[in-house]
Design goal:
The structure holds 2 protein chains of 2 kinds. By secondary structure, chain A is mainly alpha-helical. Chain A contains 9 helices and no strands. Chain A is elongated and about 70 Å long. Classes of the chains: A mainly alpha, B alpha/beta.
Chain lengths: ~210, ~260
Amino acid sequence: MNWYDFLLRNRGEVFDRTVEHIGLVGASMAIALIIGLPLGVALVRRLALQRWVLGAANIVQTIPSLALFGFLIPVPWIGGVGASTAIVALSLYALLPILRNTCTGIAEVDPAVVESARGMGMTPRQVLWQVQLPLAAPVMLAGIRVATVISIGVTTIAAAIGAGGLGVFIFRGVAMVNNQVILAGAIPAAMLAIAADLALGFFQRRIARR
Amino acid sequence: MASQNTMSQNDYALEFRVVSYRLDSGAALVSGLSFNVARGETLVLLGRSGSGKTTTLKLLNRLLEPSAGEILIAGRLSSSWDPIRLRRGIGYVIQDAGLFPHWTVERNIALVPQLERWPKERIQARVKEMMELVGLPPGEFANRRPSELSGGQKQRVGVARALAADPPILLMDEPFGALDPVTRADLQREFRLLALRLRKTIVFVTHDLREALFLGSRIALLEHGRLVGIYTADEFRKATEPEARAFAASLHSDGGTG
């Protein structure tokens, strides 16, 4: 039996796990964006604080994902076994690329452009929304792209703490010593990552050309 | 030319009273600066790099705040102006033009009228008028991006943008500094005619004495953040101050091109 025969025969569960997977990635990316984008904007001019926050995000990034899931399980409120713990950990992972690229994207906008915007009488809010954010958008989107691809990968490990997703097949396959089962999780997960990368890359090039 | 009357009450459009600007580190970029600019006059701020010319300009539109002294704009203390309102009444042109690369020429020029919420038809008419004024046919250039323009064309757009809302005051920070000599000479000539016609109060920063003599009704010479003197073109040629002599010597040594 080939892996895709297995995949076809179990397409119901594969579909459910894929939806679950996308749900975990979507929820954690949403949280990371809601926190990361405004925080990144707020940190642009606060360089000392920015170093601290990016440093902290960097440390989180270096923690192996399985260990981070493990750390979070005993934490009250957010912890425990299941999807909510996984979403917290995934959001933390996604935060660094989003934060870093928001900060650098805005900082790299030509200072002459920002200065003329201010000099022409734009309010700080207008400068941010009409000049800095549109010009930083390609760099910010590159960060979102990296964060999404990382999230899709790390989410496979979230199955280890009972969060579901395509990782369920991988862990089950490892336990059963069955390559077909492993691939039934690994291949859709890889395709998901490639699809997200291509789609966001396309979008990124489009807004960069504007 | 009907311009905003709010800014034309006083004899002087601009007045510096013993103005200093120091960095947090204590280094003074401008110290004890006093001068005034009459309405409709073009005052050139001349000096070497680091002499405080740009700082002086930024004190005028409140991109910087003086550490000491007072600045009067249309007879009112600069600190009593709302900075946003003040800046919308002062055109600002800088060396790299500072055009928004993600906006078309048309939209760049419409910036201040749009901020001021002019009606759409009036903005369109005004943009067209401005493009013709600076010699850019609207049909050809309105929808271009700044990246599709030459350096000289960018500066023309920069000037059109600064003039769009018809501000009584214009600040220009080495607007022609990055252009090739031929384009620069063209723009200088056109700008001089434009300035005579529009009767704006202009403060023009340059390190090029030839440009200063050509465009300025008066020249304020700065050295290390201090005012050396204010001269008409004739007075400058006869000036005895060492810094003025140094600039005059530079005029003879570069061989009369441009």
